[in-house]
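wait is this the right file?? whatever heres the structure
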C-alpha cells in the first residue's frame, strides 16, 4: 500500500484543490498527554498547510466502553479547547464532534453488512481491549469499532489518513471495505492512503519505559498538557533513567534517557545528535533539569490558552457547530450516493 511520508510532498487533488485528510481522537481523559501530542496531534497543525483536514472528536467511539455522561460532555469540550490551543485553525480545518454528523453511524451500518464476523474478530484492538474481561463481557460496539472507523474515513473520500503503526490494520480494513463496496455496487469510494509522518515521536512512560505513555497507565509516568506546569516539571525530574551516566540515544540499552532525549528533541526541534553532543560528559541530573524547564516553557502558554477557551463554552460549541456543518455537507452527499447505490428508497420519493 503506498504511503506518503513527511519528506514527500502530497500530491494535489483533482482540480487543484488541497488533498483531504481525516483523523480523530477520543475524549476519554481530562487532558491530552505528551504521547498524544508529540506522537500525533502536533502533526495536525502542520497538515493544515497543504491539505484540507477533517478533524473530529470521536465521542461515538468513546461510548464503546462505559462513560460518565456529564464527564464525557465536559471532556469533549476540553478536547476541542486543546485542539484550538495547539494551533488547529477552524478557518482551515473542520473541527467537529463525531456524533453531530449522523452520517458516521449511518454509513457504519451499511458497511457492517459488508464485513464478515471473522474479519472483524481479527482486529487486534478488539482482542486487546476485550482480553481483560473476556470477549463475552465486551460490547458489540467495541467489536464493530473498526467498521465505524472505516465509515469515519470513507465519508469524506479522503486522499490520506494520518496513521501510526498501530492503526495500519484498521486502514487496511477500510480500504478492503471500500474496494468491496465499489466492486459490488458502483465505484463510490476513494481508496485512502496512509500518511506516515517521518518525525512522529514515540513517547514512553516516564516510570515504565517499556510501555508507551498512555492514560491507562497514568500516574507519575504520564505528563498531561493541562497539569500545573510545576507538576509536569517534577515528573520529568523524577523520570526513570538507566545504569551508568552516559547520555546516549540507545532505545534498547538506555531506554530511559533515550525517552528524555526524544521528548527534548520533539519540543525544541534540536536533533538528538546535537543534544547528545551538548550533554556529553554530563550526568542525568543536568539533562532532566533542562528538560523540565523546556516542558514548563511549552506547557504554560498552551495550558493558559486552553483554560481561557474553556471559559467561553459558547464560542467552543459554535466552532464545533460550524465544523459539523462543513463536515456534514460532504458526509451527507456521500451517504446519499451510498444509499442510492445500495437500493434504499430516498425520502420524499
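ok assuming it is, sequence goes like this
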Amino acid at each position: 500500500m503506498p504511503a506518503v511520508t513527511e519528506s514527500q510532498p502530497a500530491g494535489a487533488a483533482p482540480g487543484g484543490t488541497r488533498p483531504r485528510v481525516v483523523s480523530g481522537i477520543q475524549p476519554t481523559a481530562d487532558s491530552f498527554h505528551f504521547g498524544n501530542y508529540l506522537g500525533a496531534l502536533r502533526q495536525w497543525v502542520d497538515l493544515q498547510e497543504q491539505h484540507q483536514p477533517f478533524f473530529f472528536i470521536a465521542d461515538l467511539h468513546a461510548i464503546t466502553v462505559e462513560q460518565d455522561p456529564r464527564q464525557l460532555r465536559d471532556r469533549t469540550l476540553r478536547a476541542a479547547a486543546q485542539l484550538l490551543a495547539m494551533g488547529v485553525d477552524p478557518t482551515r480545518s473542520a473541527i467537529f464532534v463525531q456524533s453531530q454528523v449522523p452520517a458516521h453511524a449511518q454509513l457504519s451500518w451499511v458497511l457492517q453488512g459488508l464485513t464478515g464476523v471473522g474479519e472483524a474478530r481479527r482486529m487486534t484492538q478488539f482482542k486487546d481491549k476485550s482480553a481483560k474481561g473476556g470477549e463475552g463481557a465486551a460490547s458489540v460496539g467495541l467489536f464493530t469499532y473498526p467498521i465505524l472507523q472505516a465509515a469515519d474515513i470513507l465519508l469524506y473520500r479522503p486522499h490520506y489518513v494520518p496513521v501510526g503503526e498501530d492503526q495500519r490494520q484498521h486502514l487496511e480494513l477500510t480500504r478492503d471495505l471500500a474496494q468491496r463496496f465499489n466492486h459490488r455496487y458502483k465505484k463510490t469510494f476513494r481508496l485512502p492512503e496512509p500518511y506516515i509522518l517521518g518525525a512522529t515521536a514515540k513517547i514512553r512512560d516516564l516510570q515504565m519505559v517499556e510501555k508507551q505513555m498512555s492514560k491507562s497507565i497514568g500516574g507519575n509516568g504520564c505528563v498531561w498538557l493541562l497539569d500545573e506546569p510545576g507538576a509536569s516539571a517534577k515528573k520529568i525530574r523524577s523520570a526513570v533513567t538507566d545504569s551508568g551516566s552516559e547520555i546516549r540515544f540507545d532505545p534498547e540499552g538506555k531506554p530511559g534517557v533515550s525517552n528524555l532525549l526524544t521528548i527534548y528533541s520533539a519540543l525544541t526541534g534540536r536533533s538528538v545528535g546535537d543534544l547528545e553532543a551538548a550533554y556529553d560528559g554530563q550526568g542525568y541530573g543536568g539533562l532532566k533539569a533542562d528538560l523540565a524547564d523546556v516542558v514548563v516553557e511549552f506547557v504554560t502558554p498552551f495550558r493558559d490558552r486552553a483554560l481561557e477557551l474553556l471559559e467561553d463554552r459558547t464560542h467552543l460549541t459554535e466552532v464545533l457547530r460550524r465544523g459539523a456543518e462543513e463536515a456534514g455537507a460532504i458526509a451527507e452527499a456521500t451517504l446519499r450516493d451510498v444509499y442510492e447505490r445500495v437500493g434504499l428508497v430516498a425520502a420524499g420519493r
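The longest strand covers residues 20-25. so i think its the right one actually
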